[in-house]
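ok here's G-protein coupled receptors family 1 profile domain-containing protein, seq below lol
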Amino acid sequence: MGDNRVELPETLTGNVSNETSTASTYEERSLAENISACIFFIIIILFAIGGNVLVILAVYMYRRLRDEVANLFIVNLSITDLSSATVVMLSSVIAVSMDRWALSGPWCRIVCGANYCFIIVSMLTLMFISMDRYVAIVYSLHYPLLVTKRRVLYFIVYAWIQGFAFGLTPILFNWIEYDYWEATCAIQWHIYGNPVLIYVIVAFILCFLLPGVLLTVAYCKVFSEVKKIKPRAQPQMQLASIQRPGTQNGHHDRNSVAPDEPPPPPKPQKYSESSKAVRSLLIVVLAYFVCMTPFSVTKLIKVIISTPDALPGYANLVATFFQYMSSAVNPLIYGLFRRDFQKAFLYLLWRTVRNRDSTGATSININSISM
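and the structure came out like this:
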């Protein structure tokens, strides 16, 4: 774009209108770039809203998912992503389409606080999910006693309290302005100095470093335990396929007596499903970190360098794209890697088709689906 710069009116750079970038000049995006960015944002929003609504409905309407207490964490994650899509992303679409922040100053501060809140709640929820899987695998016999609905709800409430606390702080201290290249309202790290630095350090430790360490340790323990369980599960799977004494051609022979017949081995289905669930949740965690890494790195660079031009404008915009994508990928992962969610999505599709078809005729096979 070269020297294509726009001078901001003084009312937009001074204290009167604190919702706009404080830089007196900035490189302007072209019309084609704004249109492309809006299209990309809208695609992410549609996937985020549609996919997360589908996940919430699946857990609510499909009995097998509804009965699993830990799925409340997944519902909470979907609610967080859905809120981000409707509050934060839609505001970005409006700002990019207008090529400026056209909404009110108070709404700018709310959007920024909500954005940080949703990011923190997502991170804490992923940590709680990893701890849940750790308890389910390592302490499987005590899992129903340790993981109850009330405790899960306590953890969820705590995540939102911490998210609100750190999201409200920059609003109260009035650190927020519209960042043109981030396409959203954000803390202006280069202006407020030490107070913002203290906030960043505390938020990084409590909201990212500590949850990240606990999450990593939990999944390492889980996969270590899974490797121990797998060798024991394989002989059981082979033994289950061997015809037991007292059976002929797969049918029980009433005339035969097998007093020493051992009880049937436990079915490996539960282990297999648990292993697949752990794998899918690990993919969710990895996808989240991949999407959030550009956002975190750009913020860290801004804090360290503390100048308005610490990064090229497009680096900020790409980081925002990746951050928003984190709210849209989870439903896709559930649909690809979890059979229970696949059945739930199929059930919802069947319900939709049945409601539209007065005759009730449908080509979808739902014999294996139960509410």
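fwiw The mean pLDDT is 79. kinda neat tbh
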